Structure formats: C-alpha cells, structure tokens
Amino acid sequence: MERSAAIALLHQYVHEDGLIRHCLATGAIMKSVAVFFSQDPARWEEIGLLHDIDFEYVKEDMQQHGTVGAQLLKTAGVPEDTGEIIRRHNHFLHTGTYESPVEITLQAADSASGLIIACALVKGGHLSDVSVRTIIKKAKEKSFAAGCDRNRIALIAPLMEIPVFYEHALGGMMGIRTELGFV
Ligand SMILES: [Fe+2]
After folding, report:
1. Distance, CA 5 to ligand 1 centroid (Å)?
2. What is the pTM of this model?
3. Cβ(90)–Cβ(27) under 8 Å?
4. pLDDT one-digit tens code per residue, 59-75
5. Neighbours of ion ligand 1 (CB under 5 A)
6. Domains of the chain
7. What is the pLDDT of residue 68?
8. What pLDDT, in 10s, does the model give residues 89-146?
9. Which of 101, 94, 99 is nearest to 43 (CA)?
10. Within 37-146, where are the H helices?
11. Separation of alpha carbons 183 and 44, rounded Å
C-alpha cells in the first residue's frame, strides 16, 4: 500500500489529531529503524502508520485493541502478515512474546514516539531543538510523558543501542516534522 493510501485509510477510522500525530510519528520511526536492520522501510512505515487504526473504533478497549484493527485491515486488503503484527502489538495482551525485530521495534517506536513528541512540545514545538541527549535526559524523568512505557523502549536494547535507536527515531520524525505540526 502506498503511504498516501495508508494515511487515507487511517483517517477513515481515526479522527483525533493527537492520535493521527502518534501514528505518523510511529510510522516515521519504524521506517527509519527498518533501514538500520536492512528491512523494507515502506512496509515497516505502513505497520507504524496503521498500528492504532482501531483505537477510537474500539473506544480504547484494550481487550479488543489490535484484534479489531487486524480485521479492519484485512477487509481493506492489507497483507495478513502486516495485520498479524498489528494484532499482536497490544502489549496488554501479548507482553513478553515479542521476538522478531519488527515486533520489538514497534513496541519501542510506539512508546518513543510519545516521548519525543513530548520533548518537542517542551521545546515550543521545535523538534529541531530536540537532541538525543534531550530524549535520554527526559526518559530518565519518570513523571515526564509518564504514559510512554520505558520498558517497551528497552526491549530494543539487545538489537541496537538505545542512543542509536533514539538517533534513528528522531531522524525519522525530523523527516516529516511539518506533517507532525513541528518546526
Ligand atoms: Fe500506538
């Protein structure tokens, strides 16, 4: 699926600006980290863009989240292996079962996107003023962006060093910063 088609599909089911931004950011991180792992950046971005497609639809019901998303995506013609990764990304149901780089990266990207967005907001919307140092410093403050689970980010540590992950995550988000509403 083309990126524009994935975003159009996302807009069919997600209307809240903050959630759209979260999905765009997670997609950008997935795309950037895919390059590190010599994987398909377009496919990884699609997974990130669409991972929360059902979040409003299921009214944030974490027993349904992911499962319903995979069904919506199947109906939309998204390949089933992509839908399966999205079905399983709900860590409330599947924590401790992530082994492949793409599933681990989705866990880390899902949390790091919120952390980096929060860093940009602290900088007055200037993502360009956020550095890897900023992210590492803010990640250590437990009360900062408290909903962003640091343990899910740490899952990627055996595969790539955390500062390198943040560098890729930030680079990916910088690439679409105007779409994210940042400068
Ligand atoms: Fe998410």
Report:
1. 19
2. 0.98
3. no
4. 999 999 999 999 999 99
5. 52, 110
6. 3-180 (1.10.3210)
7. 98
8. 999 999 999 999 999 999 999 999 999 999 999 999 999 999 999 999 999 999 999 9
9. 101
10. 41-50, 67-75, 80-88, 91-94, 101-122, 132-140
11. 25
First to last CA, the chain: 28
Q: From ligand 1's centre to the CA of 113, what distance in Å? A: 8
**What is the C-alpha separation between 21 and 154, in angstroms, rounded?**
23
93, 98, 177: which is closest to 130 by C-alpha?
177
CB 98 within 8 A of CB 107: yes
Q: With contact defined as beta carbons under 8 Å apart, do 95 and 106 qualify? A: no
Residue 110 CA, ligand 1 centroid: distance in Å = 5
Question: 70 C-alpha to center of ligand 1: Å?
Answer: 14
29: CB partners within 8 A, 6+ apart: 48, 105, 108, 109, 112, 113, 168, 169, 172, 173
Tally the residues of the chain: 183
Separation of alpha carbons 130 and 11, rounded Å: 28
Main-chain dihedrals φ then ψ at residue 5, nearest 5 degrees: -70, -40
